[in-house]
């Protein structure tokens, strides 16, 4: 599981996917999110700009990201 430490109050979903290297670009992030391949806290998420906060968990392609303050 990858961990992202928040510098601000939140990070956007597309930025989080890029930050840990799950995708290479914002365009790729948009595509996988719009295709329903990404889950946030167990539910499919379709908004690239979804704000992620402390303790949120993102799942993509069998991998996970934990958001921490």
Automatic annotation (TrEMBL):
<dbReference type="GO" id="GO:0003723">
    <property type="term" value="F:RNA binding"/>
</dbReference>
<dbReference type="Pfam" id="PF13275">
    <property type="entry name" value="S4_2"/>
</dbReference>
<protein>
    <submittedName>
        <fullName>Ribosome-associated protein</fullName>
    </submittedName>
</protein>
<dbReference type="InterPro" id="IPR036986">
    <property type="entry name" value="S4_RNA-bd_sf"/>
</dbReference>
<keyword id="KW-0694">RNA-binding</keyword>
């Amino acid at each position: 599981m990858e961990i992202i430490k928040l510098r601000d109050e939140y990070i956007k979903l597309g930025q989080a996917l890029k930050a840990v290297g799950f995708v290479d670009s914002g365009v790729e992030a948009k595509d996988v999110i719009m295709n329903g391949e990404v889950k946030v806290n167990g539910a499919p998420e379709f908004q690239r700009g979804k704000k992620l906060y402390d303790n949120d968990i993102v799942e993509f392609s069998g991998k996970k990201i934990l958001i921490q303050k």
